[in-house]
Design brief:
heterodimer, A: 266 residues, MetI-like fold, flat, disordered C terminus, B: 264 residues
């Protein structure tokens, strides 16, 4: 008996299972005993609430409508940010005149958290879609540009030596060394941008909106409905995680030479 | 690298271009507001922002506190949250990297919390802690702890396996290997986490203050919007940016000094 117990405790997978269900049970207990007052809903209530929202309309949209609203904002803003930032970063790294022109201004904006732009975005664009997308563009812009820029600048100079030895000109250097070597860095920039984009859309929806997952959460807060709040959080985590998977799938498809490069952190 | 890096002097034209770009940026900003191309209800000229900066150093109106008070409150909140994420995140990451039991217990919880944007915790925090200091500290902590754990964990995983096998051959215990091999070899990654965590903490601070605060730099920005004073919004943004950049430089200097002997 003890032997079995010892074996269970040493296998990672069984510990995962124990920990996961232990967490759910603890959560359920804390919520049922109302240790934190009425501000925590048990996990089953959250699931029930989410299931109810798939059929009942909240502010004219069911759960999928709200998910779609947030996802659409994220993808529009993310796409605009990436389309401008990645080429600009590459150009800055490849041409020192462009770098001298853009870098000083970029350095002014770099340390400002994208969320600090919410107020000015509302002053400029009102509380409609445009202001939310603007914040996402700002948030996605910085890591995309930085990673494209550093991706090219940190290329091993010996790679350039190789292509020069083979008689390549500047164009061949850029096409055959700079771009492929910078790809992994660009993709990790896209990953960071995407997670920042989710944070931004959430912040924008929390401050002012009439739909989206952030709105569900803030609505739960106004009505003191913790099940709605936690349900919204869970859905955001799920959708954000799925979009991240999408990007890493794309990455594996587009630049297979990155496999084997270890890069687990941010 | 086999050769010495050659020091190249920056050509004059590059320096001129950089200076010109900054001057054009501020000049253009000042001009589009002064000439009325952008109405002054939407954007404040740099000169107006600077004037407000001087005034706010001595005048607590209309938002109820001096600029330095707001900044100090924000730095306090961010500092406590930052230190707590380091104190809990780094040891947790180190232990998760080496001990199966710790990894088995904490990994599922970590994977559940990781994809939730820290901002999403704000409503729960208001339920639990109110809008006082600890609610904001919790949001900053939960955002900051994630990169700490990931970096410390990755750092332990990157320990050279040959060294571990050698230590085993000489009869080192698990704990000895962890202390003498894994922790030192994880240090550069752990120090890398200091900067990343700081940036994340600072962003989350602004978010937390935008939604639930009665003082602090994020609150200053929100008040600027409510009172339709764009110069106050811009002043808040600039202060947040400058303070963030200054703290980043300080951490960088500290890191260089502490890590002087360790290969990166």
């Amino acid at each position: 008996m003890l032997k079995v117990l010892g074996k269970t405790l040493r296998s990672e997978f069984s510990l995962y299972v124990i920990s996961f269900f232990g967490f759910l049970l603890l959560w359920d207990w804390v919520a049922k005993e109302q240790i934190l007052g009425r501000s925590l809903a048990p996990p089953l209530d959250v699931l029930k609430e989410l299931h109810r929202l798939t059929t009942v309309k909240l502010a004219g949209k069911d759960l999928f409508g709200h998910i779609w609203d947030s996802t659409r904002r994220v993808f529009i803003g993310f796409a605009i940010g990436a389309v401008f930032a990645v080429p600009l970063g590459l150009l800055m790294a490849l041409n020192r005149y462009i770098n001298a022109l853009v870098k000083p201004v970029f350095d002014i904006f770099k340390p400002m958290p994208p969320i600090a732009w919410i107020s000015i975005a509302i002053l400029w664009f009102g509380i409609e879609e445009a202001s939310k997308i603007f914040i996402i563009v700002i948030g996605a812009f910085v890591p995309c540009l930085l990673n494209a820029y550093n991706g090219v600048r940190l290329i091993d100079p010996e790679l350039y030596d190789v292509i020069r030895m083979l008689g390549g000109n500047r164009r061949a250097e850029i096409l055959h060394v700079s771009f492929p070597a910078a790809f992994p860095a660009i993709f990790s920039g896209l990953q960071i941008s995407l997670s920042i984009a989710w944070t931004c859309v959430l912040a924008a929806e929390l401050v002012s909106s009439r739909s989206g997952l952030g709105w569900i959460i803030i609505q739960g807060m106004r009505l003191t409905r913790p099940d709605l709040v936690i349900g919204g959080m869970a859905i955001i985590a799920l959708v954000a995680w799925l979009t991240t998977l999408l990007i890493s799938g794309l990455e594996r498809l587009i630049c297979p030479w990155k496999r084997g490069i270890k890069e687990g952190y941010l | 690298m086999a050769y010495e890096a050659v020091k190249v002097k920056t050509p004059l034209i590059i320096k001129i271009l950089s200076a010109a770009s900054i001057v054009t940026f501020f000049g253009g900003w000042e001009l589009i507001v002064d000439l009325g191309i952008v109405p002054s209800t939407m954007l404040a000229a740099p000169s107006t922002v600077f004037k407000l900066f001087i005034v706010k150093l001595t005048d607590p109106n209309p938002d109820g506190a001096l600029l330095q008070t707001h900044a100090w409150i924000s730095i306090q909140e961010a500092g406590i949250g930052y230190l707590l994420s380091l104190l809990i995140g780094i040891p947790l990451g180190l232990f998760m990297g080496w001990f199966t039991v710790v990894r088995g217990i904490f990994r599922p919880l970590f994977e559940i919390i990781r994809p939730i944007p820290p901002i999403a915790w704000i409503p729960l925090c208001i339920f639990w802690f109110g809008i006082e200091l600890w609610g904001k500290v919790f949001i900053i902590w939960i955002g900051g702890v994630v990169p700490c754990v990931i970096n410390a964990w990755t750092g332990v995983n990157m320990t050279n396996p040959t060294l571990i096998q050698m230590a085993r051959t000489y009869g080192a215990s698990d704990w000895q290997i962890f202390r003498k091999l894994c922790i030192p070899s994880a240090l550069p990654m752990v120090f890398g986490a200091l900067q990343i965590t700081l940036a994340i903490c600072w962003t989350n601070l602004v978010a937390a203050e935008l939604l639930a605060a009665d003082s602090g730099l994020g609150f200053l920005i929100t008040m600027g919007r409510r009172l339709a004073l764009p110069e106050m919004v811009v002043l808040g943004m600039v202060t947040v940016g400058v303070a963030g950049a200054l703290i980043g430089v300080a951490i960088d200097a500290l890191e260089k000094r502490l890590l002087a002997g360790i290969r990166r």
